[in-house]
Amino acid sequence: MVSRRALLLGAATVPLAGCSRLASTEPGPDWMPDRIGGCRTPDALTSFSTVGGAPLVYEVTGVAQSFRADPRFVELLDAWAADWVSLSGLGPLRRITTYGAFVDKCDSWHAAGRAFDFGVLEHDGGTVSCRYDQFGEDPAQLRRYWQLSASLAKWFTYTLTYRYNEQHHNHIHVDNGISGYDETGFAQRSRVQVMVVQGVVRHVFGLDAPFSGSYDGATRDAVREIQRSLGITDPLRRAPGWQAFLDAAVRG
Ligand SMILES: [Zn+2]
Where is the signal peptide (predicted)? Predict the structure, then answer.
C-alpha cells in the first residue's frame, strides 16, 4: 500500500528557496505547548494562486504560479489580507511575490501546509518589500516592513523577520503552528514576538528600543509611552491589548 506521505512526496514539485528549516528552540507561549520541530504530514492540501485576490508570483523566477497549502490556512491568509488592506491604507493588493507555502521538509510548518513566505506586496497605493537584503536601512521601507510585520503578527503568532536570522533577510515567514485558527496573544518570553514589538517601536513609532529579543525595561517603557499616546489601556499581554497595539502600528 502506498502511504499518504509517499503520495505527497511524489506531488511535491514547487521549489522553495525561502526558509526550509526553523529553529526548534523557540519557546511557545505559556498557553500552548511548543510544537515547533519534528516532521509532520498535512491534513489536506489545496492549490491556490491568489491571496487577497492578488496573483501569487514565485519570487525566484518572477513567474505567476500556484502553490499548495492547507485549505483552512489559505482562508486564514485571505482573512489576514482583508484586514491588512483595510488598515494599511495602501489600497487593493495587485501582486504578491512569495517563496512558497507547502514544502515537504521536516522541522517546519511548511511541511504541514500551514506556512507562507512573503516576498514583495504590490498595492494600488504602493509597494511593501520583505527584501531586507535589497533595501537595507532605508527608513521608509523599514517603516512599511514593520507595519506589515505587525499586521502578520496579529494573525500568525510565528512571524519571522530579518531580525530572527539571516535566512529571513529576503522574506517574512508566517505559520500558525502556535496560534492555530484562534486569535493571537503576546508572550513576553517569545523572542519572535518581542522582535516584532521592538521593530515596530523603532521603525514605526520612532522610539528607542534595543533589538535584544528580550522584553527588557527599555522596551517596556517605550511600549507604555506608545500605549499612553494612543489611549490603549489594555496591556500587551491581553489579546485585545496586543491586537490594538498591532493595529495602531499598521495604521501608522
Ligand atoms: Zn517559511
Answer: 1-17
